[in-house]
Write a structure and sequence with these properties.
Blueprint lengths: L5 H14 L9 H9 L2 H12 L4 E6 L2 E6 L15 H6 L9 H8 L2 E2 L2 H10 L7 E4 L3 H4 L3 E8 L2 E8 L7 E3 L1 E4 L1
Parallel strand pairs: 4-7
Antiparallel strand pairs: 1-2, 2-8, 3-8, 4-5, 5-6
């Protein structure tokens, strides 16, 4: 059962919206609130994003209105995960409990891709001590790899790693369309 209620989430989202206006210039809270109140699935997903430490806020990514994880570091309750279930199941030793793609699917969100990750990093610096798995193109994934990103030295970096790797400081960021 959720610890966050719809009403308490709306209060948090409104405060975050008003405190971080540079993330969504030209948007108005009442318009966003109406979209949330009229979409139960969106509301439930936002609750999951908040409960796992994502600190979701509204912005525009690739020209589309979305709620995205804006936590300073990759969401704490979404770390220690392989990229996907195929990678997790292929680990011979110490597989994690689940994978980034599976958790995202269960939450109802999509992993950010490289372009979206660069967009949110242009809005404000994130993942200064952590890193986030990114949606990986099939051609790269077919070779056993996966992408992740972070920000160091005032620059956004995109790297690769074996999809079966997992670290205490690597998780994932996600988004949901409004």
């Amino acid at each position: 059962m959720s610890q966050i209620t719809a009403d308490s989430l709306l209060v948090v989202l409104k405060e975050r919206f008003e405190h971080h206006t540079k993330r969504h210039p030209g948007l108005f809270w009442r318009d966003i609130e109406m979209k949330i109140e009229h979409n139960l699935n969106l509301l439930e997903t936002l609750i999951r994003m908040e409960e796992t430490g994502g600190e979701p806020d509204v912005t525009i990514l690739n020209g589309r209105l979305v709620y995205v994880d804006f936590s300073k570091e990759t969401p704490e309750k979404r770390r220690n995960l392989c990229y996907d279930e195929e990678a997790r199941l292929s680990r011979k030793k110490f597989p994690p409990e689940t994978s980034a793609e599976k958790v995202a699917e269960m939450m109802g969100i999509e992993l950010l891709d490289e372009s979206q990750y660069r967009e949110i990093q242009a809005i404000e610096p994130l993942d200064l001590k952590t890193s986030s798995w990114l949606k990986t193109p099939p051609a790269l994934r077919d070779l056993g790899g996966a992408l992740f990103g972070d920000r160091r030295y005032n620059r956004t970096f995109i790297y690769h790693n074996g999809a079966d790797s997992y670290y205490g400081v690597r998780g994932f960021r996600g988004y949901i369309l409004l």
